[in-house]
């Protein structure tokens, strides 16, 4: 597990309903950061059903989910769990840190 945080953007650059993607500075994992009504969540930007970027899909703010455009699998932005078939496995959830200098995330898997 890396203690290195990856810079996403300035806090003012990620408004509610918006998302940003970055690659972890250590593991190179694709990370999707979403502003869901002012709360920030980070998930691996890779559908667990088929290796496809979740960031290409729409966010449903009411449900708090994102949909993979490839086959329609949906994932909860808050915890990464799969909400419907064809995905059954969750996607990795990562920590988010916000300070005066920016929004930060990291791949904290062992």
UniProtKB/TrEMBL annotation:
Q: Name one Pfam family in it.
A: Rieske
Q: Which residues form the Rieske domain?
A: 6-105
Q: Which PROSITE patterns match?
A: RIESKE
Keywords of the record: 2Fe-2S, Iron, Iron-sulfur, Metal-binding
Instruction: Give the matching CDD domains.
Output: Rieske_RO_ferredoxin
Listed GO MF terms: 2 iron, 2 sulfur cluster binding; metal ion binding
Which InterPro entries does this UniProt record tie to the protein?
Answer: Rieske_2Fe-2S (IPR017941), Rieske_2Fe-2S_sf (IPR036922)
Glycoprotein as a keyword? no
* Protein's name according to its UniProt entry: Rieske (2Fe-2S) iron-sulfur domain
Q: Which organism is it from?
A: Pseudoxanthomonas suwonensis (strain 11-1)
């Amino acid at each position: 597990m890396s203690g290195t945080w990856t810079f996403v953007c300035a806090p003012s650059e990620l408004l509610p309903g918006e998302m940003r993607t970055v690659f972890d500075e250590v593991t190179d994992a694709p990370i999707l950061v979403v502003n869901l009504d002012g709360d920030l969540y980070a998930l691996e930007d890779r559908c667990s059903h088929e290796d496809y970027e979740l960031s290409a899909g729409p966010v449903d703010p009411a449900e708090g989910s994102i949909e993979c455009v490839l086959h329609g699998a949906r994932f909860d932005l808050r915890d990464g769990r799969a909400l419907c078939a064809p995905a059954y496995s969750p996607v990795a959830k990562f920590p988010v840190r916000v300070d005066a200098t920016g929004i930060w995330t990291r791949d904290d898997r062992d």
